[in-house]
Amino acid sequence: MGIFDIFKNKEPHYDSTNIQVKDLDVGFVFEYDLSTWEVQAIYEYDWGDNYFTREFKISDGSKTRFLSIEEDDELELSITKKIKIRVLDENLTEILHEQQKPPKKISYEGVTYYMENEAPGYFHDIAKGDTWEEFRSWDFEDEEGVNILCIEQWDEKEFEASIGKTIKEFEISNILPSSK
Question: Which residues share a beta bridge with 122?
Fold first, then answer.
């Protein structure tokens, strides 16, 4: 490798004149809901049968959220935030541990969520290499399919919850690559 090869920029994995949500990478910034957000980490989920989804840990400087991208027949996006599982129901972790499944519906902050899907999967932080963790996920939606709730089981007794909403691709704008 010559000295000038060190300074050559490698080709980006996206069209720099038309950066899309699915092109996001660590360090990218974008506008959403009147704030500027920066991608801090990328997580990948393997749901089996060669089906993968991505999640981006994003921050606006004061809040941390998670932008999930699922490419099925069309691009499906959601923005979520972590919440304490006990705020959903103070006995929920015991119910999950004993019955190995959540209730069919959960009400939180005036919204009723109905269980839509249960899926085992594998998770990994792309920056940390190929170490995958096994987990189980339960997805809930309200009647309109806008408000979402997810409960995940990581170990026998370790549970996490997140809450958010589905969004449209046009709600994310002004995507810029990392300046680094």
Answer: 46, 134
Query: What pLDDT score does 155 carry?
Result: 87
Residue at 12 is within a domain: no
Q: Is 6 inside a domain boundary?
A: no
Which of these, 149, 110, 118, lies nearest to 135 by C-alpha position?
118
Is-contact 105 134, C-beta < 8 A?
A: no
Q: Count how many domains the chain has.
A: 1
Rounded distance, CA 165 to CA 45, Å? 19
Question: Helix/strand/coil (H, E, C) string of 70-89?
Answer: EECCCEEEEEEEEECHHHCC
Q: If you compute the radius of gyration of the chain from its CA atoms, what whole number of angstroms results?
A: 18
Asked whether residue 6 carries a pLDDT value surpassing 60, the answer given is no
Global confidence as pTM: 0.88
Q: Is residue 50 packed enough to be buried (19+ CB in 10 Å), middle (13-18) or exposed (0-12)?
A: exposed
The residue range of the domain holding 49 is 24-176
Does residue 145 fall inside a structural domain?
A: yes
- Whether 50 is in a domain gets the answer yes
